[in-house]
Design a protein that fits this description.
Blueprint lengths: L17 E4 L5 H7 L10 E4 L9 H13 L1 E5 L13 H13 L5 E4 L2 E4 L6 E7 L5 H18 L4 E3 L14 H12 L2 E5 H11 L3 H6 L6 E7 L2 E4 L2 E3 L8 H14 L4 E4 L7 H17 L8
Parallel strand pairs: 1-2, 1-12, 2-3, 3-4, 4-7, 7-8, 8-9, 9-12
Antiparallel strand pairs: 5-6, 10-11
Amino acid sequence: MQSPSPAVPNIINKIQGVGIGLKRELIPQIQAVYGQEQIANINFVEIAPENWINAGGKTAKQLDWFVERYSIACHGLCLSLGGLAPLNEVFLQQVKKFLSQYNISLYTEHLSYSTDGYNGQQGYLYDLLPIPFTEEAVHYVAKRIRQTQDILGQRIAIENTSYYVNAPVSTMDELTFLKAVLTEADCLLHLDINNIYVNSVNFGFDALEFLRGIPGERIVYSHIAGHYQEAPDLLVDTHGADVIDPVWSLLHSAYEIFGVFPTLLERDTNIPPLNELVKEIDKIAGIQRQYKTVYFTA
């Protein structure tokens, strides 16, 4: 098992255990049973800041309720780190204010792009598209991550994403690209377990070998999720189904290799009632208890 790096900041100590994405339909369900044993394994929640910045009225009160009771992780959707248009600094200033207002110390984004346009004009594509795996792209994205960190005044974490087409100009594989960006940007890693599995099926590589190549000292927390099988060799990262056995196995392997880190159940579509989601939450907690070395928690 890899040893933790002392360079990893205390940012990771703000969340621990098991988390869940805070979807609107889950809010009243969690509030109704808060403090009861059935949700005892929900330790933190994840929100997209785009959905909560400048919120008022009932929405602001709901956020206040959760901030008072749970640790919060912010996982962004629209920063478009690989996009051609300049970074949206106005938005980043809003994020910075939001993080400070709610004392949220962790902000993560996707290693992808989600905009189209140039010369200051851009449109949002409402999808997360892959960045070509080239040396030029490493330098470009790392510079934008460093710029983001300078504006926010803190390190961020980037998430390895799913993708479905290999860019013909790519000169390296996904893992080499990911590690190069992490090193040059000196940022942290938001590890998505399901995305490793999805990409391994879609592109025919060994998911466990990929996992072993991850710089574990940079992991802040992970996602685990379900997906849709379009064909035997094509999986789509929908976050709309139960987690399957090979992905659970990969989570076991991750804890065995790196030690236990906070892990969040990601469910964005076909969301079942909370009492059904809790079964997978409890399963994550049970797997965490099987591994004794827990150095990613407070």
